[in-house]
Design goal:
This protein has one domain. Helices cover 71% and strands 0% of the residues. It is globular.
């Protein structure tokens, strides 16, 4: 039951809805999902969870511990993308996020929640997988909102970014409230 709650919490909490509406213009465009980047998010969080839990935890959780989360996230993400380029040199990958920014802060946020909530490796796998799954669902929602905004009659002033901002903002509030409720339930177990 607790692991199911972790999965629901992770899938809802890092939903990126508002971020997609605000700045990531590529989110709803194109026909393909950035599957490798979603896999990269999953792998980076797992690798860094192992590093922070078993290796770096010997040091105290002082300022340095939190200060290094962002650079380690970016370096690990870039390393995994570099490995992908060597393994699949002919494939042109779909990129939505930047590794240099650690996927616009998604990886450090996911890592902080995973380090603080996961007790076992299985918990870390569940959290990491559902953080990546939540990201994929947010991208799919953004694509659907863009598609529907082109098909249906919408006032001229609301087309494009204003409609995306309003709808993703409302969805973000709903998902954040559901994640908060789920977290409160997990806290009582």
């Amino acid at each position: 039951m607790i692991r199911l709650g972790l999965a629901v919490f992770a899938g809802l909490s890092v939903n990126l809805m508002l971020q997609f509406a605000l700045g990531s213009g590529k989110a709803g465009k194109g026909n393909t999902l950035p599957l490798f980047q979603i896999i990269n998010l999953f792998l980076t969080v797992i690798i860094l969870w192992i590093f922070y839990t078993y290796i770096f935890n010997l040091l105290s959780r002082e300022f340095v511990w939190y200060f290094l989360i962002f650079p380690f996230s970016a370096l690990t993400s870039m390393g995994i993308e570099r490995i992908e380029k060597h393994l699949f040199p002919m494939k042109k990958p779909v990129r939505l996020f930047s590794s240099l920014t650690a996927y616009e802060g998604l990886i450090p946020a996911s890592l902080l929640l995973t380090v603080n909530m996961a007790v076992s490796f299985l918990d870390a796998l569940i959290l990491s997988f559902f953080f990546a799954f939540g990201c994929m669902i947010a991208i799919i929602f953004m694509k659907e909102i863009r598609r529907r905004s082109m098909l249906e009659s919408i006032p001229k002033n609301l087309r494009g970014l204003p409609l995306a901002f309003i709808s993703m903002g409302l969805l973000s509030m709903v998902f954040s409230a559901a994640a908060w409720i789920c977290y409160r339930v997990l806290e009582n177990f």
